[in-house]
Hints:
Layout: E1 7-11, H1 15-25, E2 29-36, E3 41-47, E4 56-62, E5 78-82, H2 85-94, E6 101-105, E7 112-117, E8 123-128
Parallel strand pairs: 1-4, 5-8
Antiparallel strand pairs: 2-3, 3-4, 6-7, 7-8
Amino acid sequence: xxxxxxxxxxxxxxxxxxxxxxxxxxxxxxxxxxxxxxxxxxxxxxxxxxxxxxxxxxxxxxxxxxxxxxxxxxxxxxxxxxxxxxxxxxxxxxxxxxxxxxxxxxxxxxxxxxxxxxxxxxxxxxxxx
Length: 129
C-alpha cells in the first residue's frame, strides 16, 4: 500500500449544521459518526467516496465549546470540483450559503472558481470541472 492523504480535520460548533452543509449543499455522504462521551466530543466523517480509497473530511465537535473557533491565518481553504459552478452557486445562494467570491474566471487566467463558506466560516473553493 502506498502513502495517501486520509482526511483533513476541522473543528465545528454545530455538528448537525455542518453535516447538513457538506452532505446536502456539497453532495458528500456521511460516512460515519460517533460520540465519545468520556472525551466529550463527536467525530463525523464526510466525503465523496469510501474512506478506503478516498480522502475525506473529519468534522470534530467538542461538546463544551461556547466560543466560535478562530480559523487562523495559516489555513487557506478546502477545494471541491463541481460540474456546474454557476448552477451550484445559484443553488447555494438560494439556501443562504455565504459566497464571498462569486463564480467566475480567476483574475490572472485559469480555472473558473468560486469561494463559499461553511457554517463555521471555513472557506471552500469550488472549481469548475
